[in-house]
Amino acid sequence: MNVLIIGSGVREHALALKISESKNCDQIYVSPGNGGTTSIAKNVILNLSEIDKITEFCNINSIDFVIVGPEQPLVDGLADHLRAKGIIVFGPNKKAAMIEGNKRFAKELMREFNIPTASFNSFSKNQYDEIINYLRNGKFPIVIKASGLAAGKGVIIAQTPEEAEQAITEMIKESKFGSASDEIVIEEFLEGEELSIFAITDGEDYVLLPASQDHKRIGEGDTGKNTGGMGAYAPLTFVNSEMIKEIEDFVVKPTLNGLLKKNSKFIGCLYCGLIITKERIKVIEFNCRFGDPETQVVLPLLEGDFLELLYSTAKGKINKESIKYNGGSAIGVVTVAGGYPDKYEKGNEISGLETINSENINIIHAGTVIKDGKLYTNGGRVLNIISYSKQNDLINNKTLVYTEIDKVKYKDIYYRKDIAYKQFNK
Ligand code: AMP
Ligand code: GLY
Predict the structure, then answer these.
(1) Which single residue of 129, 192, 238, 376 has CA 20 to 30 Å from 163?
(2) CATH of the domain at 55
């Protein structure tokens, strides 16, 4: 089978790597890909707004299957356009992708179908005065979200009414997130441990992959600014089988059912961002695609044929037997450019990768580029080093990942030294 993966990030490299293990996989193309995908796939440049050219590319290269990685093309309707051309696609159509692309839609869906989540109110951008009034009577901290896609930056946790007012002013008067803040969701602040669960679904039936946990903050102990993700680990020992049942019964099943009832059948990876509050497990957010950096630690824990899982899902009847959890564990640590998530340099040469012991280690590229045979940094997040094992042994994973990551060299490299720390403190 020839597969085209759309996307350039670390997640798409991880997907390509896992798919390349399938006996049915012949050739993988990634568009646009990055410095890492070239080792297992062909990088191609396709303009996502030129559907006819993508279709032509698929015909010429006998592409059997397209996987759309990032949320933006899904929210823009790429899967609909390709399906209309007869191409088999993994990824939800435009309507179902609203579960990520329109937070107001997601919250209203949860309200309608009794899916536990933070209480909320939504507003449009011409309700500035009402919002300010509402906030004056609010309970702090309070969470303010741009309803549309804002590259992961559209959530502000305001500690005081002044901070909240400033956030609203930036969103409405200064259009900080462009049209993403045409609608605004204001919700209750929830406290508890966060976790991510991916449900691979054909819209009706589903398979849950092992639970994982992201580390969003730049600093150790979860301090400092938010980032695209500094590392992750899986599985989570604080998530037991009763919790998984609770997640299935109160989140996954009613959400898929609700989407079906709204004529928004979801085919793809439903990312459930959850929080274990004192009361019960609640939804923080849904995403319409695989998470990053969680995917990089979840996929090494699957045995079987991952390509068959995705392909059968995309064809409409998920083959639930195609993969299973192998009983193992994994930790992934992200290296970033000095200064990230603020201003940082690109174009610094990366060395040392060839000295990494590849046994039980994956080197996944985020922001890298190859020029004249040499590898350079090309983004804020640069590399993701993952150690994995077939036994559930996070202590060993941790020792291994930090031994190997130390061999990576480039100017002003930074990474967190405490990924999975909550697992060891419990
Ligand atoms: P989101 O973009 O919706 O994933 O939000 C980013 C992060 O903001 C989440 O991973 C949480 O850490 C935090 N967050 C979002 N909503 C809430 C909430 N209602 N209560 C507490 N934290 C939240
Ligand atoms: N790990 C957060 C996300 O993928 O959105």
Answers:
(1) 192
(2) 3.40.50.20
